[in-house]
Amino acid sequence: MDKQRDFVLRTIEERGVKFIRLWFTDVIGTLKSVAIAPAEVEGAFAEGLGFDGSAIEGLTRSFESDLLAHPDPTTFQILPWRGEVDPTARMFCDITTPDGQPAVADPRHVLKRTLAKAADAGFTFYTHPEIEFYLLKSSTYGPNGPEPVDSAGYFDNVPGGTAHDFRRRSVRMLEDLGISVEFSHHEGGPGQNEIDLRYADALTTADNIMTFRTVIKEVAIEQGVYATFMPKPMGGKPGSGMHTHMSLFEGDMNAFYEEGAQYQLSKVGRQFIAGLLTHAPEISAVTNQFVNSYKRLWGGDEAPSFICWGHNNRSALVRVPLYKPNKGQSSRVEYRGLDSAANPYLAYALMLAAGLKGIEEEYELPAEAEDNVWTMTDAERRAMGYKPLPPSLDVALDRMEESELVAETLGEQVFNYVLLNKRREWQGYRAQVTPFELQSNLEML
């Protein structure tokens, strides 16, 4: 760590960095930032930077408000969109109490704690997210809703289109920040794009997702458009998911791979999937944390609504992708319920905890879904045992509130805050009178 700190201090001097932004995330997943001068960095490394935690959503109760942000030198990067005028860098922070204990409500610590539990069982957790978002002409909208920048579709090549330049600039910026991109393409909705990050350990991935959202927003501003990670910004158009591929490694060996097994998927891999399926309803309030998230899950357009798994079946909640011959390391499972607006630290902590529970308790994996689950009747799905995901945030919160797994993984303070904050959101949503009601009822009743 000392070497890393020396590298940071040297780079700040050599590159003439004028500001260093210290980044951390609140419980809902909003990025927080405080800028310090180069002269303050050494002190921040040694003692942390004090701030009032009670002013940040969910971080502390008011009577224990003093917190310290400790920059993690391994996350130091110069921000490319700031250019050469007043070069600016960033580091992610770990949050502690004044006596040096990890702050219980720091989402990054929640994930670190769960990763430590996996490490005790001999596992490293790797993730690879496919992040979807919409590019709109502006953040305002008219009677027809938000206006996308194009009307293109999946994998479309749009000559001279905004999306090409946008993706090229975004990918270059992400690479400058040390974030490897695997694919980028136009998605199914008008103005919808997807950028897939290369797999990394889950903590790095979560940091990368927070950086990714900032990069996408910055490039959009630069190009005169607006980027949104809202799960379902337009009715009748696809929602924005964050399908995540996951694998557990034991040292250099992929614990999900077993040569000769069905789909080359090991017993550990099967139990991990069983854990995800069993606990999917109770983790939904975190993996799908907004009222709008359930418009994506239940709005058709390839979002998973039912709890089942399948081999290369895109209607299933968990998919086992096609196995590449002679590539045992690539065995993985894909969770398709997660959306682009989730707090990645908490969502990955819960997905890992659910999978680990499946391994610990040796859950039995049910039969796979071979048919298109969307086209089945309710009776057919019931007969096959495919239960639905929660239909609304309200139901998801009820399921979460009953969950020992979620309470234990998040810790009491984060658990209570998420419930409180999201109940408030649901009450606000339930109290409104919507255009749908007015159009349907006002003249008729």
TrEMBL record:
Instruction: List, alphabetically, the Gene3D superfamilies matched.
Output: Glutamine synthetase, N-terminal domain (3.10.20.70), Glutamine synthetase/guanido kinase, catalytic domain (3.30.590.10)
Give the UniProt record's GO annotations in the biological process aspect: glutamine biosynthetic process
The UniProt keywords, alphabetically, are: ATP-binding, Ligase, Magnesium, Metal-binding, Nucleotide-binding
Cofactor(s) required, per the database record: Mg(2+)
Its Enzyme Commission number(s) read: 6.3.1.2
Give start and end of each GS beta-grasp domain: 15-100
Q: Which residues form the GS catalytic domain?
A: 107-445
One Pfam family in the UniProt entry: Gln-synt_C
Enzyme class of the recorded protein, top EC level:
ligase
What are the protein's GO molecular function terms? ATP binding; glutamine synthetase activity; metal ion binding
Q: Which InterPro entries match?
A: Gln_synt_N (IPR008147), Gln_synt_N_sf (IPR036651), Gln_synth/guanido_kin_cat_dom (IPR014746), Gln_synth_cat_dom (IPR008146), Gln_synth_gly_rich_site (IPR027303)
Q: Which family does it belong to?
A: Belongs to the glutamine synthetase family.
Any idea what this protein is called?
A: Glutamine synthetase
